[in-house]
């Protein structure tokens, strides 16, 4: 029986981190056999020593005290994770702390890297950790320390020597945690990339070995090598697999299942009686993503903790029977459609279509990433038209038709599960709503394509046939109005995720802006107030701000 049976919840990326939601989560996790919940905080905590950090929605010390009491009753550890080097843009973007990060302008990824040789950044960390020590009761403290990109700092030192200095910062924070009588946890990736530094990690620390099987063509579907390296170095280690929807929904179902089952077994095989355990994680749920899809895989990990075996996707039927009262293979069928079959469509079309092939290859032949990031971008643009238009290079009419057929089948599957559910009806409801959401995104692509055809037809007739010009332009406006209405469906989805999930309130802001932009585009064409003698080409039109006068060669200055 392993000692650590954990789950890590990311409250920093699209989530409120609401105490009520987390309390319910803890109760449910405990029922699945978990004894640890790691809160991945980044900047999303109201630090008493630095009130500028965090948001109004962020967890407070009072929230943590309440949740710690719940954890104690459940026999769980509530563990904080506050990063000490990488993933610190929540500090770097703030005026008061920008000088402590590798890019004080905030214009590059380096804004998320605290300077590892800065006295100011060290003082900041020590003060933030004093708040953490005073608030959290757990004997464990996770200091992060993953993805420290030394290419952004220590530039006067040869690159091969930089991580040794970064390791000094990591070791300092480990020792700080130890002096407070706590057990430090840290990510292992940077030390595994610099194996000569592994020996420097104090033996009391627990290394979290993460790998997610997200690109198996580049990494083997095994963590035996990294686990063996850490064991040979005499280091305490936990396995850290993931439920992969960090590119968006749906969960990458087969990869996530393999990651959880294989990684857990690798850990047991390598460490034997010294195996500490596993912490399953979820990264970010934003831009159309939602958390409740994680629960079947949380259930799967719980089965493994209990010493039970699982074959393939059989756990899904067990899960829906136990949690929904639905004794069918519906959930596995739904994932086969919206995940597996969708990827097959894109991979097959990539054989014969250059646009699809280039797009898929651009994401290292991972079609699930291509598709999910496209949907996320639609949710994250004040002007979604360029994103939609660019996607038409690979979201061809044929691809869209095939995907529509798949998702219409998935709607029927989700409807059956929702109608049959006796409990937790919100879970199959969210699957059904998300399936409809994807169809709405396909509708946006169809509507934009029609708008472009009518726009181009109007441009050809402008000055030659006023009646056909006016008719074509009116048809273009009609298509844009349809897109405006379809964006309303995306807004309703975002509002639903805020209502039923733990999504942050800002999740509906972007799509509202996108809807407003499309409305203004339609208004401009309808009123003809732009003062232009001729219609600009459609590629330019969809990229400009309709509120700004067109300026010929300067259109790029007006685009966004």
UniProtKB/TrEMBL annotation:
| Record GO terms (molecular function) | beta-N-acetylhexosaminidase activity
Q: Which GO terms describe its biological process?
A: carbohydrate metabolic process
Which keywords accompany this UniProt record? Hydrolase
| InterPro entries tied to this protein | GH, Glyco_hydro_20_cat, HEXDC-like
Q: Does the keyword Hydrolase apply?
A: yes
Q: Which residues form the Glycoside hydrolase family 20 catalytic domain?
A: 58-217
Q: Does the keyword Hydrolase apply?
A: yes
Describe the family membership recorded for this protein in Swiss-Prot or TrEMBL: Belongs to the glycosyl hydrolase 20 family.
Q: What is this protein called?
A: Glycoside hydrolase family 20 catalytic domain-containing protein
Annotated organism of origin: Paenibacillus hemerocallicola
């Amino acid at each position: 029986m392993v000692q650590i049976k954990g789950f890590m919840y990311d409250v920093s990326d699209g989530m409120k981190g609401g105490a009520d939601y987390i309390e319910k989560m803890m109760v449910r996790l405990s029922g699945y056999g978990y004894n640890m919940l790691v809160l991945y905080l980044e900047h999303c905590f109201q630090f008493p020593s630095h009130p500028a950090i965090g948001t109004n929605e962020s967890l407070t010390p009072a929230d943590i005290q309440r949740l710690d009491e719940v954890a104690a009753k459940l026999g769980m550890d509530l563990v904080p994770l506050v990063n000490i080097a990488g993933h610190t843009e929540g500090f770097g973007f703030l005026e008061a702390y920008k000088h402590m990060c590798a890019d004080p302008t905030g214009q590059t990824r380096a804004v998320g890297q605290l300077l590892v040789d800065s006295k100011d950044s060290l003082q900041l960390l020590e003060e933030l950790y004093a708040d953490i020590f005073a608030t959290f009761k757990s004997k464990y403290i996770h200091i992060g320390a993953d993805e420290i990109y030394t290419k952004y700092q220590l530039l006067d030192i040869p690159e091969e020597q930089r991580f040794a200095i970064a390791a000094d910062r990591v070791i300092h924070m480990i020792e700080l945690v130890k002096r407070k009588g706590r057990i430090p946890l840290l990510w292992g990736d940077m030390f595994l990339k610099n194996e000569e530094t592994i020996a420097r990690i104090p033996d009391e620390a627990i290394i979290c070995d993460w790998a997610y099987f997200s690109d198996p063509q580049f990494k083997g579907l095994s963590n035996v090598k990294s686990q063996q390296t850490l064991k040979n170095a005499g280091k305490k280690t936990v396995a850290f697999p993931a439920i992969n929807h960090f590119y968006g929904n749906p969960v990458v179902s087969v990869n996530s299942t393999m990651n959880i089952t294989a990684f857990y077994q690798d850990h047991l095989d390598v460490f034997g009686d010294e195996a500490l355990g596993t912490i399953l994680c979820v990264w970010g749920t934003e831009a159309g993503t939602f958390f409740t899809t994680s629960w079947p895989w949380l259930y799967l990990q719980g089965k493994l903790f209990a010493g039970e075996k699982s074959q393939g996707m059989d756990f899904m039927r067990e899960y829906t029977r136990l949690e929904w009262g639905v004794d069918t293979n519906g959930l596995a069928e739904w994932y086969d459609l919206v995940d597996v079959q969708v990827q097959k469509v894109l991979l097959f079309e990539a054989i014969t279509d250059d646009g699809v092939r280039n797009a898929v290859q651009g994401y290292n032949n991972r079609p699930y990433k291509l598709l999910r990031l496209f949907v996320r971008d639609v949710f994250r643009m004040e002007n979604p038209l360029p994103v939609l238009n660019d996607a038409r290079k690979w979201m061809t009419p044929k691809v869209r038709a095939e995907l529509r057929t798949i998702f219409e089948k998935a709607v029927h599957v989700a409807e059956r599960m929702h109608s049959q559910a006796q409990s937790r009806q919100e879970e199959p409801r969210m699957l059904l709503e998300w399936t409809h959401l994807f169809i709405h995104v396909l509708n946006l692509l169809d509507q934009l394509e029609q708008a472009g055809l009518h726009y181009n037809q109007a441009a050809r007739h402008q000055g030659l046939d006023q009646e056909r010009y006016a008719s074509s332009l009116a048809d273009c406006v009609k298509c844009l109005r349809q897109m405006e209405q379809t964006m309303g469906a995306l807004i309703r989805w975002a509002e639903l995720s805020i209502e039923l999930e733990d999504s942050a309130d800002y999740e509906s802001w972007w799509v509202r802006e996108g809807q407003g932009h499309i409305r203004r585009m339609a208004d401009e064409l309808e009123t003809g107030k732009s003062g232009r003698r001729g219609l600009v080409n459609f590629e330019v039109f969809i990229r400009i701000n309709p509120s700004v006068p067109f300026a010929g060669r300067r259109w790029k200055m007006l685009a966004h």
